[in-house]
# Entry
Amino acid sequence: MGFMMTDNISVLARTPGLRTDEIEVVVTTPTFKRPDHLLLTLNSVRAQVTKRKFAVIIMENEAEKREGAEAVKPLFDSGAVNGMLIVAHDRGNCNAYNAGWLTALVNFPNFKSLLVIDDDEIADPHWLENMCATREKFGVDIVGGPQLPIFEKPEHRKWADHPIFYPHYHETGVVPILYSSGNLLVGRNVLEKMGMPFLDLRFNFMGGGDSDFLSRTVAKGFKLAWCAEAPVHETIPERRIQSDWIRARGLRNGVISTLVEKRKRANEPFGKARTVAKSVALLAASPFRAALKTVKSGSLAIGMYHVHIGIGRVLAEFGYQNEQYRQPEKN
# Structure
């Protein structure tokens, strides 16, 4: 499949003398109004302990002030960072990812693996090597890794056990499904097969485009694994442990769950009815699951997550969407 750069992508910087044909791994990072943390993220990528030749693509998604791009551009211009700095002019989470992944395919003809790290995360020094080694060991196409929360205040560490911040798996190995692009390896073969747009723009401001993408890759027959030894550390600001944000994220995750399942069952007999029935059943069971989880965890907020998921799943049947990324300053 042939790919071409589009008019809504601009190249701001490219490392002088960049040998694109030698690159084995491409690391992509979308950014939006986090210039200070973007530098931390980029420095953690620069510090990777590996012999693999890799390049970085930063996707600036704030096309006016471009604060993130301005912060990192000198590193590309000077050759301190190997790769490309682009602007994804169309706003939205999915647009930023799509722009970066397309840029990788067009400009780096021989890369085998593409990694994703967000601009509020810091990579472990062996992150890149362990993600790639896990792909090779298990012969899979996609690898996920843990996003370990780092809370701004020590007293907030109790939130680490909340399902929103808790890793989905704890042991390295083949897994049936992954949910997040916050720490992800995607094979070039996957991107070529899935085609543009990789992430569905319906999820652009709601999130969940990554979960939907991963669900579709499984349906296409691609194999997934988890690498517990390749963590990234996600900075959690204080606003993300406030009750309204936690509740909104739970409702949003419920909506995403319904939308992803609807697509998955679109061609099944009674697929829509089965999705509705599952949503109603989860909502009906959620108070009991919440009670058990509250007793086990000692936290009502953790227990209520199941209720929020159930409500979100049912609300999705009525067209409800919680677009948390519409107001990034509140996200």
Remarks:
- The longest strand covers residues 25-31.
- The mean pLDDT is 91.
